[in-house]
UniProtKB/TrEMBL annotation:
The gene is mug. The lineage of its organism: Bacteria, Bacillati, Bacillota, Bacilli, Bacillales. Keywords: DNA damage, DNA repair, Glycosidase, Hydrolase. It comes from the Bacteria. Its EC number is 3.2.2.28. This is G/U mismatch-specific DNA glycosylase. Residues 7-152 form the Uracil-DNA glycosylase-like domain. It comes from Sutcliffiella rhizosphaerae.
Amino acid sequence: MEKINDYLKSNMNILFVGFNPSILSGKVGHHYANPNNRFWRILFEAGITPRKYAPTEDFKLLELNYGLTNIVSRPTVGAADITKKEYQEGRAELLEKILYYRPKIVCYVGKGVYQEFSGKRKVEWGLQKTSIVDGTLDFVAPSSSGLVRMKKGEIVSIYKKLMVILDRILCK
């Protein structure tokens, strides 16, 4: 399987953090490559990207000042296959990335991702009251997996709030 590259740069506007790559993403070496995953469509419909990107264009998010990473780098069939040790190591690595690259907003693509990173069990959608890293806002969005039972329109409306928050930050 291919290594899925992180796409990171200093002071990016939004860092999107997923659980881990799918098996297909591991095979092709690109984020959110499974055709059942709605990540790229959600970003476009929420106004985060100017068009629907293909998974092979994942690196182009850096041009928009967005980044991509995962809490665990090993591709698996599902998040249930991630070990406690992998989460422990992944939490430390993700914290280092956030501290080093200082994104304005960290968008956790799924409540479970944020729960694993923060250790918090009670989590609401959207902007969190407190952030894990000072100077960076934490935003929890629904997973883009096709397995999520929420309607896509509901998911898109949550992601749209990211742009409202980002606009507020950039206008200061």
